[in-house]
Structure formats: structure tokens, C-alpha cells
Design brief:
single chain, 43% helix, 5-stranded mixed β-sheet, 15 helices, Solute-binding_3/MltF_N, alpha/beta, Peri-bd_TauA
């Protein structure tokens, strides 16, 4: 994707944030949350209505195909709290979107993977040259794909990279239009049935390009409703802790897995192994130096530098720390 195309896709959306739109919610205790289909424990609390019960807020849940779509909705003010990956988040805050990360949901591992089609004759990285690879642009998997190509010393222009949303990837794969794709659930489980994993984000992390998933909030909403973010952080920490303690014993028949599969649209059999491949930080770990206490801001800065080197961003922020806050998790810990 060239710089001009990237700007056309996202710059107008981020620009709207600069005019100071207020959160659009019908009542004082109503919030719209943008979520995605990633496999992770917060889906359990979402499915059970636990967030609503703990906070006392009415929540309008809106599903999005990509983090870039979530960021766009937050830029417009339609969504006040959102779930997004580190790459679209880095692009958003760099372009001036007034949002802040308040909870690191996951440090991505094998839950995002690069799959190549059986029979595509792709056995080594060099075999990717000339092939058609699909990925949602401005996503964590897009970032990971570009980082993997760089690691393999394959120029980006030697591979045909197609911008497709996860449902479109599954359809294109079914038609035989693409040779590979870097994506997450439920598309990942669908294409893996007739493909093989070439690499995962756990491996790309070892190559120096880590990715993460985060819960973020518009700053104006956060200032007006800190109680909701404290509650949200507390509940998310609780389900992450439950997974840390008991997740190794979860199977496709476990009620927790059924809840995650229902919200994400995944096959329950795909959920346990994907959960095992990712780290879900606990509430007490969030303020630490590796997460909201410094590491998250550093990761956003590093991701933005990479995006700029790939001509996806024109400028960088002098400091990414103001885009991250540990205030709400710290308050949740005290309660």
C-alpha cells in the first residue's frame, strides 16, 4: 500500500477527531464499545453481561472487522471505548486522535498467524515472491507481515499484498483467489483447514516486532466517566486472572470457551489452542514498566517508527507517554 492510498483511507477519519467532537451517547450512563472477533477472555464478560452489571452502564456493543475500523469510529465520536491492535492504535495517536490506552488486553502470540494455501508451493520465504497475500491494511497482522518480509529480506514490492477484511479473506480463500493470508479468528480457523501456518506473531515478536491488543477510550469520555473505565478494567482483569488460573483445563466444551466462540463467531474447537498462544496481562501487572508504566508507550513509538520507515506515516510524536494511562487500573487495584 502506498502512502497516498494510506492517507486517503485513514487521514480524513483522524482529522475529524481534531475538531473536538463530544461522545455520542443518549444518556449519562450509556456507552458504545467497539469490539473485534479476536479470541481473548474479555469475550466471556461481554457474553454474560458482566460489564453492564459491574458498572451500572448500558453498553451498546458494535462489532468491527478491523482495528482501523474501530479507530475510525472513535475518531467520529460514534464509539467511546474500543478494542484495537497496536498498529492501528499507533497510526491513530500519531495522527492526533484524542484517545488513550487504559488496559493492555493481550500480548499477541499464535492467535494471529500467516497461513499459506496447501498446494501453493510456498515452502521457504523466497517462495512468497510473486504470490498474492491478503491482510487487513493498518492492522497488527499487516504490521507483522511487513516485519516478517523485512526479516526475510524480501522487498515488499516483490509480493502482491491485497487489502482485505477478515470476512473477505475467508471468501477469497474459498474462491482460490489468494495464496496466503495473515489474519485472526474466525477467518484464521477457516483458512487453516486447507492451509498451513507459515509463521505466527509469536515468532515475529522474537524478531523484534511485537504486537499487542488494547482497550482504549476517547479522552473526553474518560474524563467525564472515569468510573466506567475503572469498572471495565476491574472486570477485564478478573476474567484474565480466571484464564491464567484455569485456562489450561478449558476445552471446546467449557462454558467459557462457548462464550468466547459465540461472541467471536469462531468454532469452539479453535478457541483453546489460540488462547494458549497469547499472554493476557493481569490487572496487577498493568501498571508495571513493561506495560502501561512505560513499555506500551515505547512499543507504540517503535511501531510508529516502523510505519514511518515503510512510508505509512509522515511524522512521529515527540513522546507517546501521554497516549497511555495507568490511572484507571491503579484505581481498580485499590478497590
Amino acid at each position: 500500500m502506498n502512502t497516498r492510498l494510506f492517507a486517503r483511507l485513514v487521514a480524513p477519519l483522524f482529522a475529524t477527531a481534531l475538531i473536538g467532537l463530544s461522545p455520542a451517547h443518549a444518556a449519562d450512563k450509556t456507552v458504545t464499545i467497539g469490539y473485534q472477533t479476536d479470541i481473548e477472555p474479555s469475550k466471556i464478560a461481554q457474553a454474560s453481561g458482566r460489564y453492564e452489571k459491574d458498572s451500572g452502564y448500558q453498553i451498546n456493543w458494535r462489532k468491527f472487522n478491523t482495528g482501523a475500523d474501530v479507530i475510525a469510529a472513535m475518531a467520529s465520536g460514534d464509539v467511546q471505548v474500543g478494542f484495537t491492535g497496536s498498529s492501528p492504535l499507533a497510526a491513530g495517536v500519531t495522527r492526533g486522535l484524542p484517545i488513550e490506552t487504559f488496559f493492555v488486553a493481550a500480548e499477541i502470540g499464535s492467535a494471529e498467524a500467516f497461513v499459506v494455501r496447501n498446494g501453493s508451493n510456498i515452502n521457504t520465504p523466497q517462495d512468497l515472491i510473486g504470490k498474492k497475500i491478503a491482510v487487513p491494511f493498518v492492522s497488527t497482522t499487516h504490521y507483522s507481515l511487513l516485519a516478517a518480509l523485512k526479516h526475510w529480506n524480501i522487498p515488499e514490492d516483490r509480493v502482491t499484498i491485497l487489502n482485505l477484511a477478515p470476512p473477505e479473506i475467508a471468501a477469497a480463500w474459498q474462491r482460490g483467489d489468494i495464496d496466503g493470508a495473515y489474519v485472526w479468528e474466525p477467518a484464521l480457523g477457516k483458512i487453516q483447514k486447507t492451509g498451513k501456518i507459515f509463521t505466527t506473531s509469536a515468532e515475529v515478536r522474537k524478531w523484534g516486532a511485537p504486537t499487542f491488543l488494547a482497550w482504549v477510550a476517547r479522552k473526553d469520555f474518560a474524563q467525564a466517566h472515569p468510573d466506567f473505565l475503572v469498572s471495565f478494567a476491574r472486570v477485564t482483569g478478573q476474567v484474565n486472572e480466571d484464564y491464567r488460573k484455569n485456562g489450561a483445563n478449558w476445552t471446546a466444551n467449557s462454558p467459557e470457551v462457548a462464550a468466547i466462540a459465540r461472541v467471536s463467531g469462531s468454532d469452539p474447537a479453535d478457541v483453546p489452542p489460540l488462547l494458549h498462544g497469547t499472554t493476557y496481562p493481569l490487572l496487577a501487572e498493568q501498571p508495571g514498566s513493561t506495560l502501561l508504566g512505560g513499555g506500551t508507550a515505547t512499543a507504540l513509538a517503535d511501531t510508529s517508527k516502523f510505519l514511518k520507515s515503510q512510508k505509512r506515516l509522515d511524522t512521529l510524536l515527540p513522546d507517546y507517554r501521554p497516549t497511555v494511562t495507568a490511572a484507571y487500573v491503579q484505581q481498580a487495584i485499590k478497590q
